[in-house]
Design goal:
elongated; 73% helix; 11 helices; two-stranded antiparallel ribbon; 396 residues; mainly alpha; 4% strand; 2 domains; 2 strands; ABC transporter transmembrane region fold
Length: 396
């Protein structure tokens, strides 16, 4: 994943400022939210027993201001994260399109058109969404978890020991699911490629399909690809959804343990009711932060599979490239000073061609020479299998 992040970080472009600002807003939201349980404890321990309505209203007013401030920080984080993620996705798609348009036919055949379309759309969108969620949840969750844990320990260190059991259990479950999820998501993306390929072939050759009455056969092919994608999606989803019941169970058990032991501490006078309430809120925030981390990790498992596919395209050098010393020539054969192409023609000079790894290795085309001037109609005539299509595909 580190390799993918380093490779794609260059596509942040001038959106890096938003990447810096977004976490600051999220830290502000976390700080304001962490103040809320302490204010609630003051109301329960000081305001309600003394029936001090003025104190309750003042403290409640502060809590409302804290909630509004947290909301504004959250909205600002969402806006800046969205701008950064959308800009990142735009740059990646632009780079992919530029790379794909430079590919030779052999490069396109290697990936397949359907796979390239999926990588530029679905895979890039998955990376974009994961990036946005990372700017939100992966900043919020660690800060919330660490500071809430510190505050919970400050309230009662022995009671906070319950987290020493809950956190490792959740962490182990997340790691176990993450280790298996990436392979399932990678398989699902390959099934999407296959489905896109089936649809593309059917649409391109729709006249042939109808002419030979092959609709039933094509429907069968589509049904097979669709079923394989469904099965791959079910396998991935089945693994992913197991994390929610597991986390809910651990969270409820931890809350129950806090209520049990905390209630006894309140009865013994070692802990006030307000502090117990705030402690439970901090425990909930800590475990919810772990749940947020698990969501981002699951998204990153799929994003890692998508990122490998995107980077594979970006790192592929075209099989056919212009020489560094290549120059545009005038009709007289002299080098042009203006490097822009203003006019041109198609010219083949003693061209031979064979498909890489193609059976006997014999040339499909041998010694082809012709010129097609602008506006001129050139007919290519020959029998079946003589290389007419191969010749046309050589035209860049």
């Amino acid at each position: 994943m580190i390799r993918i992040i380093r490779r794609l970080a260059r596509y942040l472009g001038h959106y890096k400022l938003y990447v810096i600002i977004a976490p600051l807003f999220m830290i502000g939201e976390v700080f304001l939210e962490l103040r809320m349980p302490l204010m609630m404890a003051r109301i329960v321990d000081a305001g309600i027993p003394q029936r001090d309505l003025g104190f309750i209203l003042r403290t409640g007013g502060v809590m409302i201001l804290l909630a509004l401030g947290g909301m504004l920080c959250g909205v600002a984080n969402m806006v800046t994260s969205s701008i950064a993620a959308q800009g990142f996705g735009w740059n990646v798609r632009k780079a992919l399109f530029a790379r794909i348009t430079s590919f030779a036919f052999s490069d396109i055949d290697r990936f397949s058109t359907a796979s390239l379309v999926t990588r530029m759309t679905s895979d890039t969108t998955q990376l974009q969404n994961t990036f946005m969620m990372t700017l939100r949840l992966m900043i919020r969750a660690p800060f919330m978890m660490v500071f809430a844990l510190v505050l919970a320990i400050g309230i009662h260190a022995r009671l906070a020991a319950i987290l020493l059991v809950a956190i490792p259990l959740l962490s182990f479950g997340i790691f176990f699911i993450m280790s298996r999820a990436e392979k399932l998501f990678a398989a699902m993306q390959r099934k999407i490629d296959a489905l896109n390929g089936t649809v593309q072939e059917n649409l391109i050759a729709v006249r042939v399909v109808k002419a030979f009455v092959r609709e039933a056969h094509e429907k069968s092919k589509f049904r097979k690809s669709n079923d394989e994608l469904r099965q791959a999606g079910v396998r991935a989803a089945t693994l992913v959804i197991t994390i929610m019941p597991m986390m809910t169970l651990v969270m409820n058990m931890a809350t129950l343990a806090v209520l049990w032991f905390g209630g006894r501490l309140v009865g013994a006078g070692e802990l006030t009711t307000g502090k117990l309430i705030s402690f439970i809120q901090y425990i909930t925030q800590i475990l919810m932060s772990l749940m947020m981390v698990s969501m981002v990790f699951l998204m990153s498992a799929r994003a890692r599979a998508c990122g490998n596919r995107v980077v594979e395209v970006l790192d592929t050098e075209p099989a056919i490239r212009d020489e560094e010393r290549a120059a545009l020539l005038t009709d007289d054969g002299e080098e042009q000073e203006d490097k822009r192409v203003t006019a041109g023609r198609i010219e083949f000079r003693d061209v031979s061609f064979r498909y890489p790894g193609g059976g006997s290795g014999e040339d499909v085309l041998t010694g082809i020479t012709f010129t097609a001037e602008p506006g001129e109609v050139v007919a290519i005539v020959g029998g079946t299998g003589t290389g007419k299509t191969s010749l046309v595909q050589l035209v860049p």
